[in-house]
Design goal:
The chain is of the alpha+beta class and 128 residues long. It has two domains: 53 residues; 40 residues, no CATH class. The protein is 42% helix and 11% strand. It has a two-stranded antiparallel sheet with strand order 1-2. Strand 1 and strand 2 form a beta hairpin. It is rod-shaped.
């Protein structure tokens, strides 16, 4: 004997809030929450308010790992932050003997960063 099965979706909101079990769902709202993909079946009465609220919240949200606190403290590497390509400094282009002589002349025995202007002064003084 042939049988026919009819599947009818009912509104999840009406069922949960008002115990109205048989309000037909007219739409499905898909969203993700705490790593789970979810589907909410809703009737015409609930579809617009729920969509509007999800839209409002999505505009406040940030992509994963980039919340407001993370953005405030996040720093880009210096090379990526600058649109100018990284170039070698004048000091880095000196050979080891010249670097040693420069450090003595400039009285900078332990300096980690040496500006090009200072190296130009040394060069213009004849690299003593």
């Amino acid at each position: 004997m042939p049988t026919r099965t009819i599947v009818q979706d009912y509104c999840d909101v009406c069922f949960a809030e008002q115990n109205e079990k048989e309000v037909p769902a007219t739409d499905k709202i898909r969203f993700a929450w705490q790593g789970r993909d979810l589907v909410l079946l809703v009737c015409e009465k609930h579809v617009d308010p729920i969509r509007n609220e999800l839209q409002r919240l999505s505009e406040l949200a940030s992509p994963e790992g980039r919340g407001r606190r993370a953005q405030a403290t996040q720093r880009q590497p210096r090379a990526a932050a600058s649109s100018v390509p990284a170039t070698r400094t004048l000091f880095s282009q000196l050979d080891d003997e010249e670097k040693q002589r420069f450090r003595i002349w400039a009285d900078m025995p332990n300096a980690r960063r040496i500006g090009d202007a200072r190296v130009k002064e040394w060069t213009e003084a004849g690299k003593p």
